[in-house]
Amino acid sequence: MINSSLDKRLLSCADYVRAGAVFADIGTDHGYLPLFLLKSGRIERAYLSDVNPGPLSSAEHNVRAEGFSDKCEFILTDGARALAGKGITDYAICGMGGELISRIIEDAPHLRASGIRLILQPMTKQEHLRRYLASVGFCVIDERFSEDSGKYYVTLLAEYTGECRDISDGEAELGAEVTHERDRVEYLGFLDGKLKAARKALNGKKAGGYDTSADEETIARIEERIAANK
Ligand SMILES: C[S@@+](CC[C@H](N)C(=O)[O-])C[C@H]1O[C@@H](n2cnc3c(N)ncnc32)[C@H](O)[C@@H]1O
Predict the structure, then answer these.
(1) Is 95 helix (H, G, I), strand (E, B) or coil?
(2) Cα angle: 77, vertex 45, 48; to 5 degrees
(3) Is residue 177 left, alpha or beta, with left meaning phi > 0 and alpha meaning psi from -120 to 50?
(4) pLDDT at residue 2 above 50?
(5) Please, are residues 180 and 155 in contact by the beta-carbon 8 Å criterion?
(6) Per-residue confidence at 3, pLDDT binned at 50, 70, 90?
């Protein structure tokens, strides 16, 4: 594990980047993640891309200020399609919604290749992203949970296997059915947030006289996960 001033959410993404990787950060914004990896010596070169010119020039400014301009390429583009053919091994697509991350992967067929790592950090709709990945043949090989300023985040490490599958509601909403030894506290915090949201939804439906059986199932699933990880 590498140490630094990165926030804990981005640190959990950085930890998945392999030493010596050819790295690309899609939606780089300020360029904090590639800069951290370059400064730590984990990687030698990085591609920084963003669909918006403002964030990309902010990244360019930060990289120049730290003296890494000769190790970086800046690409103004939507998603990852324009990064094909550059020998990139590790892609980060972080800090976006799960639907947008899914769309970016869908639009870049070159990501469906063995040896490529996708480091994905959905801010919302992680269940959509997990379902999408499984349905098109990506396998989530590891996942981390992190907490920063009272908010909980999930980071997925995915690789293409070509084995397409449907996943259960529990796996889509709560991740793989494993105990999270490393991030137990963060995972329990994440589950607690899910539980509160599910109870709120149930109470709202009850008050309106609607069917709550699906919400009750969701709550039972979350409670089971909490019990298994305590
Ligand atoms: C909230 S920031 C996240 C920055 C950084 N990746 C992180 O996790 O802290 C989202 C960034 O993604 C960029 N972005 C949004 N849609 C994009 C797309 N389709 N392709 C590339 N970048 C995109 C935005 O311009 C913005 O800079």
Answers:
(1) strand
(2) 20
(3) beta
(4) no
(5) no
(6) very low
What are the sequence ranges of the domains in the chain? 8-177, 185-229
172, exposed or middle or buried, with CB in 10 Å at 0-12, 13-18, 19+?
Answer: middle
Atom of ligand 1 nearest to the CA of 103: 19
Whole-model pTM: value is 0.95
Q: Whose CA is nearest to atom 9 of ligand 1?
A: 95
78: CA distance to ligand 1 center in Å? Answer: 10
Question: Would you give the distance in Å from CA 224 to the centre of its chain?
Answer: 24
CATH class of 8-177: alpha beta
Q: Ligand 1: does its nearest atom lie under 6 Å from the Cβ of 95?
A: yes
Each residue's pLDDT tens digit, 109-140: 999 999 999 999 999 999 999 999 999 999 99
Distance 202 CA to ligand 1 centre (A): 33
Residue 29 CA to ligand 1 centre (angstroms): 6
Do the strands 117-124 and 151-160 form a parallel or antiparallel pair, or are they unpaired? antiparallel
**Sequence letter at residue 219:** I
SS3 at position 50: strand
What integer best gives the mean pLDDT of the chain? 95
